[in-house]
Amino acid sequence: MKNTISSVLLGMFFTACSLTMEAQQTNIQVNYKDARHVINPNIYGHFAEHLGRCIYGGFFVGDTSSIPNTNGVRNDVVAALKTLKIPVLRWPGGCFADTYHWKDGIGPKEKRPAIVNRWWGGVTEDNSFGVHDFLNMCELLNTEPYLAGNIGSGTVQELADWVQYVNTNTKNPMSDLRKQNGREKPWNVKFWGVGNEAWGCGGNMTPEYYTGEYRKYATFMADWSNTDKIFRVASGANSTDYKWTETIMKNIPNQMVEGVALHHYSVIDWGAKGPSTDFTEQQYFITMQRALQMDSLVIKHSAIMDKYDPKKKIALIVDEWGGWYDVEPGTNPGFLYQQNTIRDAMIAGVTLNIFNNHADRVRMANLAQAINVLQAVILTDKEKMILTPTYHVMEMFNVHQGATMLPVSFKTNNYVFNGKKLAAVSVSASKDSTGAVHLSLVNIDPAKAQKITFNTGDEKVAGITGRILASGKLQDYNSFTEPAKVKPEAFTGAVLNNNTVTVSLPPASVVVLTIK
Ligand code: AHR
To answer: What's the pTM?
Structure first.
């Protein structure tokens, strides 16, 4: 441990020398004694929709492909996602979910109907990646499936049958059909979405109408006492639509719903989203404003939920979040393919800190989306695959999965642009089962370094290690020709002195520290 401390001290010296005179001071109070809530690993969840090249070309290439695969699923993707430790994967949409008829995606592939993917590019969906393909892939990835049910264009019977097909062993037509299709044991899928964006692509419903529909579908997905303990997620609000959450909580009995969703994208303006790489500082500032808004959204939606569920039994499930920009020039506008820069690393860092800090209510979140769509963690180009800055942040943060959240309090400096202000520093902390404390720090200010101090509590600390993700410019990204331009490095800018740690946080950086 001595070595760790002295190398940290040395690193601190060099970093201190390189810091500008403008370094700002933030003192963080870590409240070790108030550790109560476990950070649900599912906060680090992902989302895979039949949209653009997320499934086809992203996850799935088919078993006749020359790209190395297991039952058609890319081996490079499986390895990368296993390293990431993805706890849960939502499928098949998104908007696609309310057009998806799951029986189209079972049985011999050559007999599956080809349909038009009407939300996303109007392309042919041949259903070659279906129910078994997805659920078996989840087993390969060691991840929990989260199925989004179709209540927009499907029927109550169809969704009830889907639950039976994947979850029952008792003899019935659905379990027989599953066995006939080659799967003896049920998959026991726990997480079920009851529709998606019911206020929009899921059926343009009013909240009152949706809650009536929800009650009907949810009734037939379970039995009287939900013996199988499936976890039903009500389609949730669009960002600030608090009336939606209020109506859901008021009209659906608590015992009929286990989770309520929320969708929020960091989009500058739906009519002018701006480019994913060649953006201005003004566009960066607005994007970060939208990302930081997640905190007040979680607080306000949770406060509504508290009125009807004071014991917080029902989870807030942020099952779509992330940055949304213009598609890459020359790509299909319906495919939502965008690059991923340091700006996205900042969005990921601050958002995951927000979720960690609200671990009492936020118990699942799904980044939109895993591969080749919106704020992806992986991009593919035929046989090539790259990891994005967002991937690296999610991998660095995975130490928080299942750890106990340590509340933090602090007053941060501002990142000021054109006279407008945003909190420059974001932080969350947790203690894992081995007793190690992890602190994730984000400085969104692209020009000013931050000097941070925090206390290590009463316990004796042997040393600190850390990793950092940063790059020369906010616009830096990994490309197929330069795949490792942005990647985590060892961080040596933290120094321990008695029970105080001082950290020099460079501009636009994400740092995760481990204190043992
Ligand atoms: O993630 C892309 C789309 O955004 C989803 O299909 C939909 O639910 C949301 O509007």
So the answer is: 0.94
